[in-house]
UniProtKB/TrEMBL annotation:
GO function term, MF aspect, one: hydrolase activity
Name the UniProt record assigns to this protein: Alpha/beta fold hydrolase
Keyword Transit peptide included in the entry's annotation: no
Top-rank taxon: Bacteria
Keywords assigned by UniProt, alphabetized: Hydrolase
Any Pfam family hit: Abhydrolase_1
Length: 280
């Protein structure tokens, strides 16, 4: 396993930390949730056998710093960050893009806003709740999470958020693979450090995002929408399934649940490779 080449990129209002491995066509991996470049450690080296693999910490997460720490976050600006990464690492050549969760929302916006720079997007469980028939309930959930965060703090807000992500009618905690790979377990401290920013800035902005359905329909031959085999019925899966239905495309199933790339990295990475190969 070779250590990645690291660098920093100045973008509007932030400095991004990024890592690059391998050789070949560029694959840009956009993390979601509280993850940064390290969330792809389980799949990046294998992908680098065929591709130039770029990962990065989104603005405000981990090693990517904001010029104004209290700045509001917008999907379009995060997508512009991804565009700057493409321009740096794959100038003039359309790239392959994978996004997970909130990173998948960034990838969707990147595809619709800058389609000339993207050869294919694989979007795993983007929580685009505005496409759901019960979108009003999800708006209420987002508002409840924010009110709880302001009034009671992080962990009560996370409890509200986790309850809202569960399967309909499921009174238990969301199904999860609790035994994480060693690398993932070692990232837990950084994950916790990123949580307040994620809950306070990313969740309300990203989960209010409405994708450009007509544009995505026109570009559907360059889009793979994926869901977890173990997360059927949970909110991000339902959003991905509803989006695929709206676009008249197949929902592809990847191993594990919402964080399958962390809990099932080998199997997840192999399916991702197949999806990327099929796109070229």
């Amino acid at each position: 396993m070779n250590a990645p080449t690291t660098g920093s990129l100045r973008v509007n209002g932030a400095t991004l930390h990024y890592e690059v491995r391998g050789e070949g066509p560029l694959v840009l991996l956009i993390p979601g949730g509280t993850g940064g470049a390290a969330s792809f450690d389980g799949i990046a080296d294998d992908l680098a056998a065929e591709y130039t693999v770029a990962t990065y910490d989104p603005r405000g997460m981990s090693r990517s710093t904001l010029d104004e720490p209290d700045a509001e976050q917008q999907v379009a600006e995060h997508a512009d960050d991804a565009l700057r990464m493409l321009e740096l690492l794959s100038p003039g050549e359309p790239a392959l893009v994978f996004g997970a969760s909130s990173g998948a929302i960034v990838a969707l916006h990147l595809l619709t806003a800058h389609s000339e720079r993207v050869a294919c997007v694989v979007a795993h469980e983007p929580p685009v709740v505005e496409v759901l028939p019960d979108a009003a309930e999800q708006r209420a959930l987002i508002a409840h999470v924010q009110d709880t965060f302001r009034a009671q703090g992080l962990m009560p807000a996370m409890a509200v958020f986790a309850a809202g992500l569960k399967r309909d009618g499921d009174a238990t905690e969301p199904k999860a693979d609790l035994k994480l790979p060693r690398q993932a377990a070692a990232r837990s401290e950084q994950t916790m450090a990123n949580l307040p920013y994620f809950v306070g800035r990313i969740v309300p902005s990203f989960m209010s995002y409405t994708p450009d359905i007509p544009q995505l329909e026109a570009l559907s031959d360059r889009l793979v929408i994926a869901g977890g085999q173990d997360s059927c019925g949970e909110l991000p899966y339902r959003s991905a399934a509803a989006l695929a239905e709206r676009l008249g495309t197949e929902l592809h199933h990847f191993p594990g649940g919402h964080i399958g790339l962390t809990t099932h990295p080998a199997e997840f990475g192999e399916l991702l490779r197949k999806a990327l190969r099929a796109s070229v």
